[in-house]
Amino acid sequence: MRGSDFFIEVAKRPPFSKLHPKVGEFFKEYLAHEKVIAFGDRHVANTHFPPYPSAAFDSLAAHFDRLGEATQRRLYSVAFAVTNRCDFCCWHCYNAGRKEADVPFETMQRVVAELQELGAVMVTLTGGEPLLREDLEAIAGLFDARTCVIVGTTGAQLTRARANALRAAGVFAVGVSLDAAEAAEHDRLRGVPGAFAMALAALRTAGEAGLYPYVVSVATREFLARERFLPFMEFAREAGAREVHLLEPSATGRLAGRSDVLLSAAERSLMDSYQAEVAAREDLPILSSYSYLESSGAFGCGAGLTHLYIDGSGEVCPCQLVPVSFGNVAQEPLRAILDRMGCHFCKPRTSCIGRILRPHLPEGPLPTPREVSEALCARHLPKTHAIPRFFAVQSEARGAVGREELRAAYDRVHGDYDAFWLAEAGGPIEKLVAQLPLGAVRRAFEAGCGTGFGTALLARGLPPEGRLLAVDLSEGMIGEARRRVDGSSRIEFRTGDALAALESEGPFDLVFSSWVLGYIPLAPYFAAAARALRAGGLLAFVVHRENSPREPLEIFGELVAEDPSVLLKQVAFDFPRGVEHVRTEMNAAGLTIVRAWEGAITFRYGSAEAVLEHLLKSGAGTAFYDAIDPARRPVLEERFLRILAERQGGADSYCVVHDYVSCIARKA
């Protein structure tokens, strides 16, 4: 599958459908130079990115907007050496000469927790030779599904039992070092007789265990010669590799001072051209390289900011190829080290910091100690510099559908809302309200009262002294609500921001909402409700599930993914994925679920046009529609209707299914 086709597939649903359209355009263009393969029930672009679908992939998409800023640091990738020990003597080893005392497992537990808190999506457990640690599987198992874990190895000691254990611990891939298609040449480069046979056996073993098997090769200028490179790609395929990842030789470690091994700009450009060529061929493995990923036109160098290296003795460096340490995780928290590092690595760069700093490294043991590292960076790293294209695009990606857009949308549809929405959506509200002990509620708050359907139900159940504060953004909706309750003295209506009112107007015995959460972000709302509720008070709501109604939203997502520029603003609401997602957010807010359930309501229409009218007049699709470039709406409408009709397959009834979550929770 071409990368551009893969983008359309993933961008039609959350979390990628929530990207700002400018960021979406960047990714579509970037992935056009990649190919994506199926691996089991998932798809892989390459080992720079987590497989899709996965929790790590969702984490990647959800935190794009926080990458690249030292002030709100989010890590992306970490090379985490679990040991510096190794039985090989590889000609290029960047880790040579480092201390061989391993970081204790107890420290590893803390560091892994810190890495996940900082958002690390891709973590490669490397070395040295990581398989020399008998507790490697236990270390891998410390990461949860938010992180894609890879093991990088020479292949020595990868038995079937260990491969099975690594997979059971959650490892996704194993990268095996392989530098030649000839045994003698690979053994020479790796300094161990039989290294070639070990590498090939490890590839087979990894694949048989269900791990994603790939090759890591050092791209010397001799290796990049076409008559050698393409046969190697074919050899890697026959050996069972699903990907070949190219590393450039670096003048550090065993190659310190060897500027002669560094690739020229033309040779790095050759790697990029090979990547494009291989991406167009289905008969070869994926080809990946930092040359493309870290180019100025893509993500650039994120060393010390979005990428880290932690060596086997705990020293924290900006990159595995930049031997300058800013502290040791065995001696202090990782975040303290990163705060120190953040003084020098504030923005991603268009050029490799290793090439800038390596000529200035002092003689003697590496990595340099903290004081020397800080002085080197202060003296030699430019304070001002260009930023890579992704981060330039990200900085320009402003404008999202928010409070004002929602207010305008609901002011427009308030007269049609009951007929096009509450005709079916009122049922879950009635079911929820019927389970609330309203007779004991003295003061209630309703967030997003809409046309007052839930408001009226709540007011009827309150005791004589009970009062209800109902808040909505839309004057039009508030007007409909007032007419529905016909001047009830128990209700105070207020036009404004429900979250702000909740923060300032407590305490309450009940906080209620129906079909409005998601437009109000979940975590801030739950936290505000927890603060506003009295002890023992209840939070109750019914909310759309994410990506619902699925079929219409995915058709819309496909159309946008084909050309993200049709959207003028980001559309990124925060609907829950299901009950467990709600439970996680509730626990974080200090609320306890009393009861939660999932359900669905179905609207039936006789034509695709009636479905579109439902989406626009019920509020379910209004904000999406308003974010489309007005000049392009007619064409997109026509295509939407045609696709919807085609998928209906000639049936005379169109079903629009809205999935929801209902919940009642209590404050302790």
Structural class: alpha/beta
Strand order of the largest sheet: 9-8-7-6-5-4-3-10-11
- Major β-sheet, in short? 9 strands, mixed
Distance between the termini: 52 Å
- Count the helices. How many? 26
β-strand amount? 15-25%
Number of strands: 18
**Spatial shape:** elongated
Give the mean pLDDT. Answer: 95
Low-confidence stretches: none
Rounded radius of gyration (Å): 28 Å
Q: Can you tell me about this structure?
A:
47% of the residues are buried. It is built from 26 helices and 18 strands. Helix 17 (417-434) runs parallel beside helix 18 and helix 20 runs parallel beside helix 21. With 668 residues, it is of the alpha/beta class. A 9-stranded mixed beta sheet has the order 9-8-7-6-5-4-3-10-11. A 7-stranded mixed beta sheet has the order 14-13-12-15-16-18-17, with helices on both faces. Helix 10 (265-279) links the parallel strand 8 and strand 9 (286-289). Helix content is 40%, strand content 17%.
Task: Summarize the topology.
Layout: H1 3-11, H2 21-31, E1 37-39, E2 42-44, H3 55-62, E3 77-81, H4 105-117, E4 122-126, H5 136-140, E5 148-153, H6 160-168, E6 171-177, H7 183-190, H8 195-208, E7 212-218, H9 226-238, E8 243-247, H10 265-279, E9 286-289, H11 290-293, E10 307-310, E11 316-317, H12 334-341, H13 353-357, H14 370-380, H15 389-396, H16 403-413, H17 417-434, E12 443-447, H18 453-461, E13 467-472, H19 475-485, E14 491-495, H20 498-505, E15 508-514, H21 522-532, E16 533-544, H22 550-562, H23 579-589, E17 591-605, H24 608-617, H25 622-626, H26 633-648, E18 654-667
Parallel strand pairs: 3-4, 3-10, 4-5, 5-6, 6-7, 7-8, 8-9, 12-13, 12-15, 13-14, 15-16
Antiparallel strand pairs: 1-2, 10-11, 16-18, 17-18
Helix pairs in contact: 1-2, 1-22, 17-18, 20-21, 21-23, 22-26
